[in-house]
């Protein structure tokens, strides 16, 4: 039966675009190298019509599908299980630009377009595409939409969901929903677009999207500050909102342990001020008037912050390259963690006002549980999203640390997240990594509603089964 399916898929997408055996390895391993799956085959369609035909063929054969973009996810949601009975549907060949509409401030592109390429295309058109994240050189827009990715400019521009004005989606039965209208107002019933965004490929396969563009700012300024505490960081954020208003585009928090790892593994980056306080904050402001106006606002903000003793010291980037270098330090934290060894990651969100108390209590609980544990806490404080990670004590082997302690660390972190009114996933999604935990931290009514939606849109449970929701297993 599988041979017949592979032959049918080859007839649809063409010779060379159905991969089997060793050729599937890169598509079957997750970015963190934690999960090694096994695919029946990898199919690489070149058009929406081919995607629809592939879905119909798999549905007829009763074979489940794992949609995949750049495979940069962190929750084990975009690779096949170990059964060898799942088809990986790679959208990487679908990277065409369908339209750029300057008057409507929209760009319509296919799902396999790499995020960095979307940014470049929009810039060439004289605008800005403000979605920016560490994996932008390899992640795809379809994956960004499927996980509702956040990134560093959410404070001003919102998540991927907020940048999307329309979708094209192949449904579980192989139909094509064309919702690429690019409208900002369309009050004609249920908003299907928002249903598919963030669903992690479990409800439909996103094949194209109409995305918002915004005018290029006249000036963009970046500052790096050392702050004495998390309470001070929160107060600095409030002050930035007050004085910069909508010009504030980024507000990133990094603790000393995170920056110590960057300094250790990438000393050439010359991390500024990281030894002067327990936290550093990276601020970015975009101004529509002029660089002089932006600098006046920025410098006044930092003067007030220092007067209020919210900032110990600060540096303002004097060039585009210096600003890039500061952001590169922030984006290198994840790589520095990987260089130090495997670690325990948490992508959480909390009410901003409760973050200092959460961190204080959770830090203390974990240090009591595992003396010597290194807590790498960084993220998008401006929107309440923290990457609250744990590295092995220096005298403990990293893989043994993760194997022996990941579960108990997660229990402490998630219990406190729930107690402080937060979410166990801010921007990475649920995947299979957090699937079993989700029912413990989300209301039973919400879980029932999501299960009903899944059953209605994918009654055969063929699209990315075992992800997000606890359901029928496909493991051997």
From TrEMBL:
One of its GO terms (biological process) is respiratory electron transport chain. It comes from the Bacteria. GO terms for molecular function: catalytic activity; FAD binding. Gene3D superfamilies: 3.30.465.10, 3.30.70.2190, 3.30.70.2740, Uridine Diphospho-n-acetylenolpyruvylglucosamine Reductase, domain 2, Vanillyl-alcohol Oxidase, Chain A, domain 4. Its cofactor is FAD. Keywords: FAD, Flavoprotein. It holds the Pfam family FAD_binding_4. InterPro entries: FAD-bd_oxidored_4_C, FAD-bd_PCMH, FAD-bd_PCMH-like_sf, FAD-bd_PCMH_sub1, FAD-bd_PCMH_sub2, FAD-linked_Oxase-like_C, FAD-oxidored/transferase_4, Oxid_FAD_bind_N. Residues 35-216 form the FAD-binding PCMH-type domain. Belongs to the FAD-binding oxidoreductase/transferase type 4 family. PANTHER family: BLL6224 PROTEIN (PTHR43716:SF2), D-2-HYDROXYGLUTARATE DEHYDROGENASE, MITOCHONDRIAL (PTHR43716). This is FAD-binding oxidoreductase. It comes from Corticibacter populi.
